[in-house]
Amino acid sequence: MPRLLLFIESNTSGTGRLFAQTARALGFEPVLISRQPGRYPYVAEDAIRSVEANTADLNVLRSLVRQLALSEGVAGITSSSEYFIATAARLAADFGLPGPDADAVAACRNKATQRRRLDEAGIDRVRHAEVTDAADAVQAAIGIGLPVVLKPVAGSGSVGVRLCATVAEVAAHARSLLADPTCGALLVEEAVKGDEYSVEIFHDTVIGVTRKHLGALPHFVEMGHDFPAPLASTVADRIAGFALAATRALGLTWGPLHVELRLGEDGPHLMEVNPRLAGGFIPELVRQATGIDLIQATVELAVGRTPEVTPTRQEHAAIRFLTPPDDGLWFATEGLEAARGAPFLRDLRLYRAYPLLIARRGDFQDRLGHALTSAPTLEGAVAAAELARRAIRFRVAANGTGTLATVA
C-alpha cells in the first residue's frame, strides 16, 4: 500500500505543519517538495522528509513524482499553499490520484477568469475589468465608478488589495503592483458595501458561515473571525445557498472551499472563491466550535478515504489578531500573562520574536499573533478574545522614540 503523501510547497502559517503532522497521525509519511525546504522551520523541527526541486516546473515535478511512485508508492498529492494548489491538482490528475478538477482550480485561481465565469452563470454581477497597465486601470475605474477595489488577478492574504477612492490612487497603486514582474494583470472591481462573511464548504457541503472583521481602509486586513456567524437561520441559509451556487458554477465540488462575500441590503455579493481551506486559523475555529477537523478531512480525502464531517458539538469560537501600533523597531511585549488569564482562551501565540523592524504592508503579514477562544456562547468567546487582545501591548520605537500602545 502506498505510504507517501506529497505536499507541493507549504504555507507560512501553522497549517503546513498541521498537514504534515496529520499525515503522520494517519499512518502516512509526509514529504515536502519545495524549491527551498529551509524556508519552513517545521521541516527541521519535526524531522519532515523533504525533497528540493523546482516547483515552478511541472515536468520536473512529474519526473520526481514518477520516481517516488515507482520506488515507494504515492498515496496522494496536495498542498497547503494557495500558490501551489493548482499544481498539486494537476499532478494528482496526471497520476490518477484523488483531487479536485485541475482545470477548474486553475481557472478559479485567476480572479478575472473566476469573475467572467460567474457572470456567464448569472451568479453575481459585480462590475469589474481586467487590465494590464495603469492607464487602462484608470479608465476601468472611471467606467465602473469610484471608489474601486484594485488587486492582482492572482494572490492571497489580501496582498496588494486596496480600496482606491480617486483616479490618482488608482494610477499609483496600479503602477506599484505592475512593477512586480510576477504580476501580469490586475482586477478592478466595484466596491461593494456590507459586512463581510465567508462560507466554509467541504466536498459540496456547507460546514458553516464565518463573520469576518476587517481593519481600517484602504486595506482589507482581516483582524478577526467569529464562527459560526451570528445570523438568523434564514440569512445564513441564503448565504450558504449563494456560495454553493458559485462553487458549482465554477466546477468546484471536491474537497475544501472558502467563499468570501459581503452581505449588502440587496443580498450577498461575491468577493472571491478560493479552492482551498480558509486561512486565518478558521479551520481551528471550526474544530473548536463543531468538532470537525477540516485539515484531517482534507488529508483523508487526498489519500482516497471518506472523511467524517458531522458536528460532534455546538459551541462558538473567535479569534482576534495582534498587530503593531506603529512602524519601527519592536523591542518588547507586555501583558502576555494577563492575556493568558482570559476565560475560554484556547490558543495565544506570537508568530515572530523581537527585536524586529516593523514595516506594515496592509496585508496578512502585518499580524504578529493571535488570541483564539471558544465558549458555549458567541458573546463569551468574543468577549474573551477581545480581553486577551487588549491586554497585550507592543513596545515599538517609532522615529527613534520608544512608544507604548495597545494593539490596533
UniProtKB/TrEMBL annotation:
GO MF assignments: ATP binding; ligase activity; metal ion binding
Record's keyword annotation contains Nucleotide-binding: yes
Keywords noted in UniProt: ATP-binding, Ligase, Nucleotide-binding
Domain ATP-grasp: 115-303
InterPro entries according to UniProt: ATP-dep_AA_Ligase (IPR052032), ATP-grasp (IPR011761), BL00235/CARNS1_N (IPR041472), CPAse_ATP-bd (IPR005479), LAL_C2 (IPR040570)
Protein name: Biotin carboxylase
Organism (species): Azospirillum palustre
